[in-house]
Amino acid sequence: MSVPNATTPHTDDAAELLSFDKSVAAIRKHAQWISGGVNSNFRLNISPTPLVFERGEGPYLFDVDGNRLIDYYLGMGPMILGHKPQALVDAVKSQIDKGILFAGQTEIEAEAARLVCEMVPSAERMRFGSSGSEVDQAAIRLARAATGKRKIIKFEGHYHGWFDNVLWSTAPAVASAGPANAPTPVIGSKGQLPESADDLTVLPWNDLEILEAHLKEGDVAGVIMEAAMCNQGSIHPAAGYLEGVRAACTRHGAILIFDEVITGFRLAPGGAQQLFGVTPDISTFGKAIANGFPVAAIAGRADLIDMFTNGGVVHGGTYNAQPVAMAATAATLRSLTPAVYDKIGKSGTALMEGFREVFARHGVTAQVVGFGQVFHVALGLDAPAKNYRDLARMNKPAYVALTTALLRRGVRALERGAWFLSSEHDAGVIDETVAAMSDAVRELKAAGTL
Fold first, then answer.
1. Distance between CA 265 and CA 364 in Å, rounded?
2. Which of 27, 139, 211, 346 is the most exposed place for a label (fewest CB within 10 A)?
3. What is the pLDDT of residues 354-406, one digit of tens each?
């Protein structure tokens, strides 16, 4: 099997296409001990198989079959500096020499917290956690404690973790989701308590009038949203929407929560709230905050976050602010310079433009939209999506076939349509990716899949 080098474009020659037989065998073997051979349901049912990796370096992953893959999963978003950045490796090794876990405080966690508060507009005070799901729960708890109200509003297509009270309408079948202007909450998992949605309202995103009508009822504790809808579609907020939501929440006494687990430290040093100039009451972060280490954060107004200290609101966790992870956090945040964002933005923009040209040349209807740092490809849409219902019309089977064809050409991309960029995706990597896309589209067009 021939594996292309980092500068050689892929071709349609079958001898050049990659195979993943060793990953198939390894997953089958691992399933003796690990359910499905994976430790997250979001790694199941990947076409042609979940992969097993040996190492990562820069923009590349190397799997057990010996394949070198250009990585646009980037750990589902965290690896904004690419795989194995030296500054982070050095910081982590240094901290390991000092100790791993103390059940106490360290200077490195204070340094990491200081960087978060300096970078994020809403962060007057903050706390660390270990996962985005966890800190989203803390944010909802704070909203209810601060307002004395129960109801939480979330939006179709937005993801805030896998717990019962929020795993609703994250990617619902439209046939089960009710009217577009008054969605029916759709449960996300068997075993999930139906009554966990009793205090949850699901609304369409990007419609200020509908949100305002619900807030006027006066019983809403908090509104939680992705400020840019990046879990599904990399959809921009409509002009004036975030500003209107901010004003409406203030007017009606609801806490505004921005879930920046994807957008935080990726779209800008201060996240989507800095990019769009709208400051929420509470923000949650994860993923890019520590470039692959299990770190999350909740930040916001000091009077709200300090309810953990003096307001009777419980927040805890054995691994919160674990020193090795804090060393990784501080090293990552120090590395996120304006030059890094400029480089990623230019690379991502070039990749988006390259894809648009490929689709246009081959007569493929598609939308390539989002941000240089993270964007989305939707086959079959003739206009950019404004919300989840628009996005649900994309041709998902064709897109899975496309990502499978790309993988066989050494490009690993998420089957849900998201493309994450890192500082290590340089012009050569972008050119190789566009060439692989052209080859893949040509193959699928010839087969009648596109």
1. 33
2. 346
3. 999 999 999 999 999 999 999 999 999 999 999 999 999 999 999 999 999 99
Residue that the structure tokens 């978060």 belong to: 116
Residue 10 reports pLDDT greater than 60: no
pLDDT over 90 (residue 450) = yes
* Known catalytic residue at 343: no
Q: Which of 73, 159, 241, 399 is catalytic?
A: 159
Question: Kindly report the CA angle at 172 between 166 and 174, in degrees rounded to 5?
Answer: 145
CB 262 within 8 A of CB 75: no
Catalytic one among 259, 281, 390, 439? 259
Q: Does the annotation mark 287 as catalytic?
A: yes
Q: What's the whole-model pTM score?
A: 0.94
Whether 90 is catalytic:
no
Indicate which residue of 149, 151, 154, 287 is catalytic.
287
